[in-house]
Each structure stands twice: as structure tokens, then as C-alpha cells.
Amino acid sequence: MKGILLAGGNGTRLYPLTNVASKHLMCVYDKPMIYYPLSTLMLAGIRDIMLISTPHDIELYKKLLGDGSHLGISITYQIQEKPAGIAQAFLLAEEFIGNDNVCLILGDNIFYGDGFSTTLKNCSQIDEGAIIFGYRVNDPERYGVVEFDENFMVKGLEEKPVKPKSNYAVPGIYFYDNHVIEIAKKLQPSARGELEITDINIEYLKQNKLKVDIIGRGSAWLDTGTPLSLLAASNYVGTIEQRQGYKIACIEEIAYRMGYISLSELEKSIDNMPNSTYQLYIKQLIQNEIIKVPVLL
After folding, report:
1. Average pLDDT, the chain
2. Which secondary-structure segment (H or E) carries 106?
3. Of 58, 73, 139, 185, which sits 20 to 30 A from 261 (CA to CA)?
4. What is the band of 207 on the pLDDT scale with cuts at 50, 70, 90?
């Protein structure tokens, strides 16, 4: 399965923070925002990833992440000249996807929870159709919303409805079979002038090939597109990390835990890091591995 990391858009809700650089490069506690969705793809077992961003920001991502080889993955880059909806990503990445299935994740979405990595790995094995998620929120009108029938089966989907028919929003991670490319090609722009991801999901629903997994109370989904949600995400990550002593979305650690790089390659990764709490964390991780301190991912 291929992975698409969509980090485009103008980030107007975070102005003036985004007046110079993409919102996906903003700080979420101690790491760039883009580390979090990248780590989600890596935890899903996806190692071939395309990052899509603006002409202004693409070089910054290349400087930050390189080609991914230091993480045991491959990262390629694609310019999005003008934002035209999430579904545009499949048109931009058509050649990259080829004949594979694909997972798309938005660059401002953070997922965290016990067992969620197992869910991601299972979703990445999709043979046919589409898998999306539902997450209960207090403000569903900001998102795509899932409507259920009396048996909690998916009945419909709406994009940012004025009067939501449920409190279950669709987070920004989507798993599709290869037919998503042809579906995206047939889309017409919405009233907002965008190619809507919800319209792709509706098409899979019409074909009875859409599955919605509910993310329960034990997992968190954080959307970091506004100043308040960015602050909340930073506070959440900081609280967890300080309490447990583990870092969330430490991409070098994940690369090692997933078997993408060896312990010696992990040791080499710190050579290019300045003295920092991030470098110290990886040094401690290496020491713990040497003395075989057990840890769960």
C-alpha cells in the first residue's frame, strides 16, 4: 500500500503563524506537526509515501525529512499548485499510486491510542473498497459527518452540514483500493469549488463497499487547524510524554520499533542532531535497548 501525506492548503485559520511557513511545520509540543501524520503512516506499515505541498513549502519539507532513507522508508514530493480539495490528491499522485491501494492522511491530523497501530495495520491490508473512521465530537458541523441507521449501520455522509445528523465526524485518514483514482477523476467540484473527499466516500457507500470503523473513547483524534486546537494538541502531547516518559511520533523510534532500521542505524541518526531533549530521548532509547528494557509500541 502507498501512502499520501497531504500538507497543502493556505492555513488561513492559523494566520499570522502561517504567513511564512505551512501550518504543518508548526510546533505541536516538541515536534513539527508533520511528524504526527507521518508516524501514523509508518505505524500502518506503509513505507512508500508521497508528500504533497505548496510550491512555497515543498523545499522546507525536503530539508526536514529528506528522502526518508534514514527512517527506512521512501518519501517523494509533489507540488500542489493550487488547493482544490482533498480528493485532488489522488489525481496529483496517480502515477505514484500506480496499481497499488492507498492511504491518505491529512497533515494536520494527530491520532493516538492504545491498540490504534494494530487497527492501522489491519486497515492497510484492505483488498477491496474503502475504510474510513468515525469519531464522536461536539462540533460535527466542522467536518464530514457519518449518518447511521437504527442498527448503527452507515446510512449517509455529509460534508460540513449545517444541521449534522450525528456527532460522528470523519477524521482525516482514509484507506482505499485502487479504484479511488477513477472515482476521483469523475468528481465534479462542489459548491465550495473543491473536489470533496466526502463525495468519494459516498460513491463507495453507493457501491456498498464502504466500511466505517468507530474510534472509541480510549483513543484520541486531534485536528490542529485552529489556534485553540493547536494549543490543545500541544498540551495533550506534552502531558502524555511527561507522564509516561515516552515520546509520541518520534519517527526515528518508530522506524526502529517497526524494523525499518537497525539499532546501529538508530545510533547513527543522532549524529546530525544538536544537543536537545529529542536527542537525549533517542540516546536513552538506545541505552535501554542495549540493556533490554521492555517497551510497548
Report:
1. 92
2. strand 102-106
3. 58
4. very high
